[in-house]
């Protein structure tokens, strides 16, 4: 081993030292900085090894400088010691230099580690304090929001314990926090709670829904009721489990009360407090909306006797007091029976019986009315005897309309008045029709045709086999200026008596045939047959055949599309002139059907001689099936008998008055061909029929 | 307007944090036991990690030198973490004294540490914000001031975009920042890649899924597409040691072992 010159040895060490530091961490250091570090530390180590006197701290300093430059990897230390150890050791300082270098590196690393740990802890601490400060600020914001919100806010747990309430909520309840906090949410039940609100609440706290909103009443601390718009939201924890409920309440009492008052005003009579005319009609119309088959109702139309005299002689004030007293008595006597008492205006009152069990019940109600008004009424010094007349109407819902029913009850009332006061009179259709004609129909009818007051609705007839629309029946209506819309049963009899049936019948034929021809053009084979009623007097008129021929020609309607409905009484015997007319019509290609079969004195013997091709079983046969007083199996046997009789004669059978799917199914099973009634559709405007033809299928 | 945070972000010291884990890989002590535990596990699976981190740190230094030498003296370092040594302002000022730097990180501890470190540095600022909300970053006064003169700014996204998942759309973040940059600005970017050590990628990502900052390693093409709207400086997107090495030996025989890819782009 030759000793190399000291300078060459120093240069070689520097190169090795530089290579050692350049590896690893050295790559991340700027080359210039690294170069200076290499020169500095190599210099220090050289001085430690060679300079006299021996200064061990040069080696320590070199180790510390490496740590300062972030050479903190212990592998660097290992490699450095190994390199130092390999250097020639002429003066025996080698081990001491290695030791001092390692000590310097370790001491610096220890200092650095402690410093960095201190720094990162300080940083973490400072970050935590910042976060806490931010959290406090956030809490303060929430607290301010909660406390000063104009809306009432309450927080509860999922067991329903009220945990916190804000000021606005305390004000809504007129309570202090102690009256609410610690109490249970379900103590806040109120009898007028919307149905479903508590079920929704249970769903919310059990996590099945997130949110609910209702208008809800609460009892205040002072016992008053406060109406609120309530919104409750569910708060879940990090795992999604229900944790809190937050309720927000807005006091809407004023708005609610106003609404209630407006509604009460709109539906109640301000003098007597009874439901008014609007409320009465609302209830009545509701009965007609979706009636059960066979549902019945009753009306007692009440008018005070001699009220005008009281009013005129004792003054309006006394009159008003009398009306109030009457209202109170009627209400006290009839409301417990479940009937509605309303004031229609003036001295007219009405009693409505929903789900009426029959005429007897309606009559009993009328008697109750008269009994209630039996004793005299004391007003001031006066003892006033009050009497009243009552018109009683009791019908199946399906057989009438609200307007017709009230009109009929009113007319029945007038019959009661005419018959002598202080009594009730039961509705009689014939009497009513007579009354209609007497009061309003006969006089006006001639002009009505010219004024265009008549119009036609069409009721569908469906084939039972496939549900298709087979025919429609034209039904004439009269939009009477005073009486409202009248049906044929209310004025046709009068028209026959007065002879007006002739021009009216012609008009109906023209309209119906025109309509049928229009549908035929638009829908071809899908267009329904047109059925038009023929009054007895029309059938007996020699001009009928000419009229029908002319109308078919002008409208262009295919005669086979027209069916005329006659009643059993149209033809009274084999020699009847009307028979010739009917044959002539059939010869033209028009078909005939017997309408309302079973209601007259049908002479079955010559039914076979009539040139008819159809038979319509009167609605009362099907209607009777639902009459609890009549045996249903017998009813079905009668209907079935009529169907087979008609089929024996080769006639197409139509059942009228079919109101339920069940009846329709049974009639189909019996073999009945066609059916007509509410189940298949009420009389409607022609546009609605057109829509149904276009749709093609059965109505439901 | 930035709305107040209703519930401020907490400082969760029970979970390892990417910035402190990175510090540990680099031999620093700015970390806690949870961080070291996580780092030790990762290193047991993948002993090259400290070397990779050093390589990334070396790229940062070379890239900052490069952009500083090309005349840029404004820096926006997003995801700056804990600037243990060779922080951007030090490297940049060695070339361009007076360089201004805004450090952005979303970790409150890293931010607090940086603030302590830079307390007396008037030309450096620290902002707590999240790269996934680039509009928020751009709205901060410190950042607006940096951009206000219209001089070129270097945006540094070094080893940070792999902490943004695909669903969080890192491409959008970069494009929002890009659109705010004046002409001549630079994008300095490095990113964990799937190609270098595909055998390690899944385990490593699995480990980071336990941290608040899951890792999404991406392919070369995906990383290159982050430079949309920039002109890539030669040699483009390459493995960390391959980008502007100071001498050919520094690249080493297996640059792909460093797995990270890096590049610098300039905004025309």
Automatic annotation (TrEMBL), chain A:
Residues 212-264 form the PAC domain. SUPFAM superfamilies: EAL domain-like (SSF141868), Nucleotide cyclase (SSF55073), PYP-like sensor domain (PAS domain) (SSF55785). It comes from the Bacteria. SMART domains: EAL (SM00052), GGDEF (SM00267), PAC (SM00086), PAS (SM00091). Residues 295-429 form the GGDEF domain. InterPro entries: Biofilm_reg_signaling, EAL_dom, EAL_sf, GGDEF_dom, Nucleotide_cyclase, PAC, PAS, PAS-assoc_C. Residues 438-697 form the EAL domain. It holds the Pfam family GGDEF. Residues 138-208 form the PAS domain. NCBIfam families: GGDEF (TIGR00254), sensory_box (TIGR00229). PANTHER family: BIOFILM ARCHITECTURE MAINTENANCE PROTEIN MBAA, DIGUANYLATE CYCLASE DGCP. This is GGDEF domain-containing protein.
UniProtKB/TrEMBL annotation, chain B:
Coiled coil: none annotated. Pfam families: Methyltransf_19. It comes from the Bacteria. CDD domains: AdoMet_MTases. Transmembrane segments: none annotated. This is S-adenosyl methyltransferase. It comes from Kitasatospora indigofera.
């Amino acid at each position: 081993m030759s000793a190399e010159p000291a300078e060459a040895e120093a240069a070689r060490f520097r190169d090795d030292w530089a290579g050692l530091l350049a590896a690893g961490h050295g790559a991340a250091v700027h080359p210039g900085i690294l170069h200076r570090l290499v020169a500095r530390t190599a210099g220090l180590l050289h001085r430690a090894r060679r300079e006299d006197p021996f200064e061990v701290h040069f080696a320590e300093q070199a180790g510390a400088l490496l740590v300062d430059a972030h050479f903190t990897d212990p592998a660097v230390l290992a490699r450095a010691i190994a390199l130092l150890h390999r250097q020639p050791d002429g003066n025996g300082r080698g081990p001491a230099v290695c030791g001092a270098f390692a000590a310097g590196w370790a001491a610096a690393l220890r200092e650095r580690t402690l410093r960095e740990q201190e720094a990162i802890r300080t940083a973490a601490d400072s970050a935590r304090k910042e976060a806490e400060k931010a959290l406090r600020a956030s809490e303060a914001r929430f607290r301010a929001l909660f406390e000063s919100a104009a809306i009432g806010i309450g927080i509860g747990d999922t067991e329903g314990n009220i945990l916190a309430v804000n000021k606005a909520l305390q004000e809504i309840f007129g309570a202090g926090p102690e009256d609410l906090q610690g109490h249970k949410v379900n103590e806040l039940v109120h009898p007028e709670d919307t149905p479903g609100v508590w079920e929704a609440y249970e769903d919310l706290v059990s996590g099945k829904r997130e949110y609910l909103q209702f208008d809800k009443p609460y009892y205040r601390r002072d016992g008053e009721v406060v109406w609120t718009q309530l919104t409750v939201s569910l708060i879940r924890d990090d795992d999604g489990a229900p944790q809190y409920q937050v309720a927000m309440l807005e006091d809407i009492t004023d708005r609610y009360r106003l609404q209630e008052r407006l509604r009460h005003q709109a539906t109640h009579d301000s003098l007597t407090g009874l439901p008014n005319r609007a409320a009465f009609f609302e209830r009545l119309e509701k009965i007609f909306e979706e009636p059960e088959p066979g549902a019945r109702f009753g009306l007692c139309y009440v008018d005070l006797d001699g009220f005008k005299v009281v009013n005129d002689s004792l003054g309006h004030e006394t009159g008003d007091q009398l009306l109030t007293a009457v209202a109170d008595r009627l209400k006290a006597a009839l409301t417990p029976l479940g009937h509605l008492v309303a004031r229609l205006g003036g001295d007219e009152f009405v009693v409505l019986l929903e789900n009426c069990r029959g005429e007897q019940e309606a009559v009993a109600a009328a008697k109750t009315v008269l009994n209630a008004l039996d004793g005299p009424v004391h007003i001031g010094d006066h003892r006033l005897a009050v009497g009243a007349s009552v018109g009683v109407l009791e019908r199946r819902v399906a057989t009438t309309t609200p307007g017709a029913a009230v009109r009929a009850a009113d007319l029945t009332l007038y019959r009661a008045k005419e018959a002598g006061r202080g009594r009730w009179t039961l509705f009689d259709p014939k009497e009513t029709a007579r009354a209609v004609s007497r009061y309003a129909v006969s006089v006006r009818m001639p002009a009505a045709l010219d004024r265009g007051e008549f119009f036609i609705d069409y009721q569908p007839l469906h084939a039972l086999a496939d549900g298709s629309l087979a025919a429609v029946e034209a039904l004439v209506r009269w939009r009477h200026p005073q009486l409202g819309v009248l049906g044929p049963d209310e004025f046709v009899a009068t028209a026959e008596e007065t002879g007006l049936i002739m021009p009216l019948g012609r008009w109906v034929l023209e309209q119906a045939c025109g309509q049928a021809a229009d549908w035929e053009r638009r829908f071809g084979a899908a267009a329904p047959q047109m059925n038009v009623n023929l009054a007895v007097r029309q059938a007996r008129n020699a001009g009928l055949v000419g009229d029908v021929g002319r109308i078919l020609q002008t409208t262009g309607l295919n005669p086979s599309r027209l069916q005329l409905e006659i009643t059993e009484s149209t033809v009274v015997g084999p020699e009847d002139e009307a028979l010739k007319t009917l044959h002539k019509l059939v010869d033209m290609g028009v078909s005939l059907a017997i309408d309302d079969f079973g209601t007259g004195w049908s002479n079955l013997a010559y039914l076979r001689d009539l040139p008819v091709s159809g038979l319509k079983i009167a609605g009362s046969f099907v209607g009777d099936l639902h009459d609890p007083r009549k045996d249903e199996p017998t009813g079905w046997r009668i209907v079935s008998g009529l169907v087979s009789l008609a089929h024996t004669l080769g006639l197409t059978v139509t059942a009228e008055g079919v109101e339920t799917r069940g009846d329709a199914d049974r009639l189909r099973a019996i073999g009945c061909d066609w059916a007509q009634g509410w189940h298949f559709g009420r009389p409607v405007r022609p546009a609605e029929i057109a829509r149904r033809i276009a749709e093609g299928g059965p109505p439901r | 307007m930035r709305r107040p945070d209703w519930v401020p972000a907490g400082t969760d010291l029970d979970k390892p944090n990417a910035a402190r884990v990175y510090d540990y890989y680099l031999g620093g002590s700015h970390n806690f036991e949870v961080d070291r535990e996580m780092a030790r596990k990762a290193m047991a699976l993948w002993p090259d990690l400290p070397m990779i981190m050093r390589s990334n740190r070396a790229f940062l230094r070379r890239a900052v030198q490069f952009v500083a030498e090309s005349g840029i003296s404004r820096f926006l370092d997003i995801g700056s973490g804990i600037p243990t040594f060779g922080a951007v302002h030090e490297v940049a000022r060695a070339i361009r004294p007076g360089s201004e730097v805004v450090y952005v990180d979303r970790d409150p501890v890293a931010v607090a540490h940086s603030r302590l470190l830079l307390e007396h540095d008037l030309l450096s600022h620290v902002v707590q914000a999240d790269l996934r909300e680039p509009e928020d970053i751009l709205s901060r006064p410190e950042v607006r001031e940096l951009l206000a003169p219209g001089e070129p700014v270097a945006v540094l996204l070094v080893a940070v975009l792999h902490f943004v998942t695909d669903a969080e759309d890192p491409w959008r973040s970069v494009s929002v920042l890009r659109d705010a940059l004046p002409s001549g600005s630079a994008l300095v970017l490095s990113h964990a890649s799937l190609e270098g050590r595909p055998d390690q990628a899944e385990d490593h990502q699995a480990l980071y899924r336990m941290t608040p900052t899951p890792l999404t390693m991406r392919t070369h093409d995906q990383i290159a597409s982050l430079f949309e709207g920039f002109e890539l400086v030669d040699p483009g997107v390459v493995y960390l040691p391959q980008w502007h090495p100071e001498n050919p030996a520094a690249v080493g025989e297996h640059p792909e072992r460093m797995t990270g890819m890096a590049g610098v782009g300039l905004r025309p």
